[in-house]
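thought: fold this chain, then report.
action: predict
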Amino acid sequence: MGKVRSARVFPTQSSVLDSQALGRMVLSSYGVSGPITCRFFRKGMTDAYEVKSPTSTYFLKIYMHGRRSWADVEDEVHFLNYLHRHRVPVVGLVRRSDGAFITRLNAAEGTRHAVLFRSAPGRDPDCGQPGFCVSLGRLIGRLHKVADGIQRTYQRAPADLDFLIDRQIETVRPFMAHRRDDFELVSAIGASVKRRIAELLSRAKPEYGICHGDLHGTDVRVDGKGGLTLFDFDSFACGWRAVEIGVFYATHEWMNVTPQAEAERMRQLGAFLRGYQRERKLSRGELEAIKLGPAVRHIYLMGIVLKHSSAYNGFHWANDHFFDWHMKWFRHWAKHGPLVKTSGNGGRMWRSR
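observation:
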């Protein structure tokens, strides 16, 4: 049989861009002094490349095609520059030689955008240390307060409950078609959490406003004097600040449902809140809503991982083992979470029922 030939490039959904070519682009477009090395650091919902010159280290961030528009990336650049001007310690950006911050790349799957960041100074944090939790809380409190002064209206979609819960549940639905009871439990938890957050929180500043969007506590570096630098603002958007803090609360050993793990999460959250409230006092409703953060976070992560990771890793891992792992947490939360109340006869009931 003869070979089938086509002049058209076959469609691609997730490419890996060549490190050497990106290094040449950085050298020619950003005015970084050479010689430089560029190495592929990590693939994810954004790809990262480590760029080293004789005097500095940078990270080149390549956004996934179709996930972030030019306007979305422009909003992120504006927000970071605004925070930097107001002395909030966030990672710095590097201008191109023409004064712009964003480079448009023609990848096999379509347009991808690139931004060059300075490397955040210091080391990875010890997230369990109370001092770190207090410092991070204070940093996020200041970030939220400063962000409320922004006059620009950002175009990127908000991190509201439609995005964090409803759309993620719809992503999960086909993967759990053979586990109807489990899917209905996750859906019921999502609906119940939505109702309770609507009761507790308003959609007005300072309860609702611009957030970092992925506050798991490890997107930060600590310098030799204990100063923090925050990075990875890919998920920044308008949302509830209490839900943002709930992400931090949910992070430590996030699948561990033992009393010891929950006690440690509460200890870390308490230290975080001490720091945060030095900058901004939380309302009673916000303090209550933070307790709902873990359920929001678990639903969001299930959906976002199934949607985006499968684009570059396939979906072989989205099997019953994966869902058993998640459902252990959801069943525990349904029995012991904050939406469980004690009935008059000493029994326990879940509020959504």
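thought: worth noting. The radius of gyration is 22 Å.
final: tokens above.
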